[in-house]
Amino acid sequence: MTGPGDRFKAVIAPLLATLVLSAACVLARPHHPVIPADYNVTYTETLVSWNRTFVWTVQEYTAVSINSSKLLHSRGQRDQICASIAGHYEEPCEIFITPEFRYAYFPESSYCCHCCVSGAPAYCGVVKPDWARDGEFSGTKFFPSPSGEHNATCYEFVVQGMYSNHFWVTEKYAPEGLVTPCAFSEALSEHMPLKQLVYDLDNWSPGPQPASLFDLPSGVDCNVQCPGICAEQPGSR
Question: From CA 15, how far away is CA 33, in angstroms rounded?
């Protein structure tokens, strides 16, 4: 025979278990999605434009410690800067970000140009590792790695700006207190993706990068102003 206390326990116990589990899940997720300052990684970039979808690969080297980054876009790229430069459409393109400027270089054509200043007024410099720290947690998503050896369930954070920015991260494969990027996407208000990056966690390597990686290509003049979208940036030459 059970009394009122037993019936109360029978009702409240499952609720308490649910609350404890929910609290554990909340505590387990990163409070601030801050990635390492220095790293290199490969990712697949997808662009949706005029009902067409374009996909290419990017090798990124970033060293925030020296305010430098290099992005190697494969053939078929539709990068916003590279694809806007007439005569080099779809050609492999390398973006160099230095403490002073951002440059575009097309190795097949030996053509290099200056895009915009890293600081004010264009702010074309390196993306800061804590850019999403004030993002709102929005759930989780599973991302498999190409080899299957570095799969991860990643936390999604949303940062509202001109677009809705979605950033997925995991605490796996990162130094303590930091996170590893899984994916990033920009979307319009109706959630149609404009651009998406999916990181290859098999090729994620946090740590110092050689300063020589960010040297501008030799034998070409990179001081000419890039045409296209670069010429529209504040402070362009």
Answer: 30
pLDDT at 29: 66
At 194 the pLDDT is 80
pLDDT digits 0-9 by tens, 21-34: 343 344 456 668 99
**Residue 24 C-beta-side C-alpha neighbours within 13 Å:** 6
pTM of the model: 0.85
Q: Are 59 and 29 in contact, with CB atoms under 8 Å apart?
A: no
Provide the 10 A C-beta neighbour count for residue 6: 10
- Phi first, then psi, for residue 224 (nearest 5°) are -75, 145
Q: How many CB atoms lie within 10 A of CB 174?
A: 19
153-210 pLDDT, tens digit per residue, is 999 999 988 788 999 999 999 998 999 999 999 987 655 568 899 999 999 999 999 9
